[in-house]
Amino acid sequence: MTPRRTPSRSVSRVLLAGLACAAAMAPTAPAAPRDPASVPLPALTRMDTLFLTAATGEPRFQAVRDSAQAALLAGDSLTLAWLVERTMRPGHRLTPRQNHYIERLFTLIADSGRHAASRRALARAVATAPHDTARARWLYIGSRLGDTAFRTVARPWLRDSSAAVRRMAVRVLGAYPHPDHLPLLWDGLEHVQGLERHMRLWALAEHASLTSTPAARARVLARLAPLLDDPHTYNRRLIRALMLSAADGAWAPLRRAMPAHAEAARRREWWKLARESRGGDAFLRSERARMTEEERRVLGL
């Protein structure tokens, strides 16, 4: 009789591993439902309760919401410090309405810049933000305060490594215009792209001193004319608006700024400028042969 062979030790290990895997994949009975009363709830402080109440949008809670907001405003600097701390808690979750309400509280306490507590709290929050997203958000709130002194907080972040932080720092300079900002906004404009360039252009447009003198107007035309080939429509539209403003709506200064041999794509932007300015009709008629039928139709020729 042939003796029965015993499986080797390695084969036994493979079989045991397979059985263990099958057992792990086998369907298990659903867990018994837990009593809601037994689920631990996060501990809420008085400030948590006031904030959650004040941030609610339910109309029937208007009276209690107003009362909670009055208590938060009375807290002044303590409320602002708590808001910063709460926002920076690891794993914190805030609804869009609550995020908006944080901005509202900072603005109300700032009182259009008459109370410096909001600016000081935001300056600390910007400096100690744990990541770029938080820093950009604090800078954005600073641009909504109505406190012109906040621009000194934003300036050091114009050269930050994060594009989002740089954009919000530029937004602050546009929100609180000052002639000293113009060199900062012009610096490197040709090297930034997309939304960052758009924010720079918007901030420049907010400065009345941008076109206050003939020399300033000439500078605007000279600096912006090469940027008319920007790949983004929203940037080209804003560039044309700035150039029209610098030329006081007249075609003659724009024509002097136009290069002798503009590429086709950039030439189309000059056609639009001629159409939008006074005295550009003659130039458009002279350019008619260069245009396609569709371009003539768009320009109304």
Can you walk me through this structure?
- By secondary structure, the protein is an all-alpha fold.
- The chain has 2 domains: 45-176; 179-301, no CATH class.
- The protein has 17 helices and no strands.
- The protein has helices at residues 9-25, 46-54, 62-75, 77-87, 96-110, 117-128, 132-143, 151-154, 163-175, 181-186, 194-205, 214-224, 233-246, 251-257, 264-276, 281-286, 293-299.
- α6 packs antiparallel against α7.
- The chain is elongated and about 75 Å long.
- The model is unreliable at 1-8, 14-19 and 21-26 (pLDDT under 50).
Q: What are the defining features of this structure?
A:
mainly alpha; 2 domains; 301 residues; 17 helices; elongated; disordered N terminus
Instruction: List the helices and strands in order.
Output: HHHHHHHHHHHHHHHHH
Number of domains: 2
Low-confidence stretches: 1-8, 14-19, 21-26
**Amount of helix:** 55-70%
The overall average pLDDT, rounded, is 84
With helices defined by DSSP (H or I, 4 residues minimum), what is the helix count?
Answer: 17
N- and C-termini, Cα separation:
107 Å
Share of β-strand residues: under 5%
Radius of gyration: 31 Å
Shape: elongated
How many beta strands in the DSSP annotation?
0
Supply the helix-strand structural class: mainly alpha
How many strands, which pairing sense, and closed or not: the largest β-sheet? none
Oligomer: single chain
